[in-house]
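Sharing in case it's useful to others searching the archive later.

Someone asked me privately for the predicted structure of Succinate dehydrogenase assembly factor 3, so I'm posting the question and my answer publicly. Question first, with the sequence:
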Amino acid sequence: MFGPEHVSRVRQLYKLIFRVHRALPTELRIMGDNYARDEFKRHKNCNLEESRIFLNEWTDYAISLAKQMKPLQQVKRKTVGKYIDPQLLDHMTDEQIVQLYELHKAATQTNTENIEMQEHNTKDK
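And my answer, the predicted structure tokens:
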């Protein structure tokens, strides 16, 4: 299993992601928080190589989002996120591609649909 240093790094990254999400619009924050929470739970018992990749990708995400949330960047761009390199899709499993598609659908729904979906997910828990 992983040592205390690894566990500490994971906790710090997890907390950082939620802090960065505070700057997002409410709908994106809720979706991002839920997605991050689910992904960290899903990878809780992964192997060393998967853990390394997982932490690197989430660290890159947190840094990228933090840069985008700076006030000056918000004034310039007024958008959040970036496009995925299509070559990355070649390395994804079918399950990951489906999950990415579902995330895309959730991100592009109207505010009303997002609220309804969140209410439905809250009732299921």
